[in-house]
Amino acid sequence: MVMDGHSVIPTEAARLLAVQLLSPAFPTGAFAYAQGLEWAMDRGEVANGPALAGWIADVLEYGAGWSDAVILSLALRPCADHAALDDLARAMCLASERLSETLEQGAAFAVTAAALTGTDASPAALPVAVGRALASLGMPRAEIIGLYLHGQALNLIQAAVRFMPMGQAEGQRILASLAPLILRLAALAADAEEDDLGGCAIGAELAQMRHETMTVRIFRS
Fold first, then answer.
1. Which CATH fold topology does 30-211 show?
2. Which of 46, 52, 147, 215 is least enclosed, having the fewest CB within 10 Å?
């Protein structure tokens, strides 16, 4: 049994609540962001399913995915300093659009999640807001991180489906193929510390910066 701030929630219900909170359908506006993927698709850098799978895998393992996973892990721990982690999450954003993305989604997440969990509704970077809201659910950190990364991957795939000649079936196949990587990264991040932060997804970071200057675009990042 775990507490949500107002009442006792059975573990099974806590797991369902976590799935609800971390679903891409949760109202954070995530559908409007693509983390620079739009620029890469427009330039032909990502033009098919295999290229998309490789791009997302690199973002998860070496870029924003890994940084978010570690910060989320730290935010889920007892006595976590969420204010300090929020500063750290902001510092990990190398592009202005990436910073806006995590702050705007985090603020939207915090407000709606607070109504369901009784937790703090103040604005925070997305992984911090998620960790703050889900820490009371009593679930294994690796499970929560896995759900978070799965949602991030699906958001990027849905962006590609909207932009490229790619069907939903292929998008779902790509998502399924990323499962072993997501589970491995979630397990690693569950026990990670601040010293494990860092990455080298230079192409994705440059794509986010170049996206800022696109004349016509669908997505906000």
1. Urease accessory protein UreF (1.10.4190)
2. 215
